[in-house]
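Hey,

Quick one before I head out. I ran the complex with pyridoxal-5'-phosphate overnight. Inputs first:
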Amino acid sequence: MEIQPTPTVEIHDPLLVQKGVKLYVKREDLNHTVVSGNKWRKLKYNLQEAKRLGHDTLLSFGGAFSNHIYALAGVGQEFGFKTIGVIRGEEHLPLNSTLSFAQQCGMRIHYLDRTVYRQKAQPEILDFLKDLFGDYYLIPEGGTNQLAVRGCAEIIDEIEIDYDILCCPVGTGGTITGLISGLAGNCHALGFSALKGDFLNAEVRELLKTGENNFSNWTINTDYHFGGYAKIKLELVDFILAFEKTHSLPIEPIYTAKMFYGIFDLIKKDYFQKGTTIVAIHTGGLQGNNGFEFRKSL
Ligand SMILES: *Cc1c(COP(=O)(O)O)cnc(C)c1O
């Protein structure tokens, strides 16, 4: 289960020259030909652990457009696991492109209404799912657990340039926790929350607890969520289209666009000192682009 190494490429922009800041992108969107991005990093050690424990079935949770469910279905099939995706809400037919891909990979899809879904971590629900599907290896929603953190820490090892700040988008906090734990002492991790609210600081602190260090080399910015998870404003759509045209780099609106918007905005506002080198992690998730109307009208 080797992850394809990916390059770190420089972004060229007049603003960067003007502000004396260097910006690179670590192309994690290229780390797998099908699933792409941080979800594959998060799954790698979970798949190994499932195998070690003798499980042949993986079960996890997600929304109908979840990058995690997509990745689980894809790599689950690749490495010979049965997969079960427990999806929030009701079935909508025809299946969207995320779920129809998952089904083509052999994933069994089961829907839970939103009230029940909220209690998905409760033993009664997990037992109910065991009665339905038999024994399984459980992977949390979004794929975040300590094995995921370990997988994401390995992103650091592939970055060969020197940098001061490492940026990534934040959903559950698993990816940034991995980056924080793998970061060199003089570097800082800057996360951009794709969700509203300040609870992510506590989540990351919780995830870091098992480490031996007391990390203080990180910040989560909550100014660029654009209204909250999966909320998209016209301003963000305009940014995406201009960014993709200028830099020939595909991004998506849920996570990576919010991060890049935030980075450019902070550069404009002189948040970074002259001479700073930033590496932004492109966390992939490009499959999600299929679901957006603004893509279809292009
Ligand atoms: C899931 C996801 C994230 C968020 O990762 P977390 O580990 O949940 O914080 C960021 N970017 C993309 C593209 C994702 O799919």
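The longest helix spans residues 38-52.

Talk tomorrow,
K.
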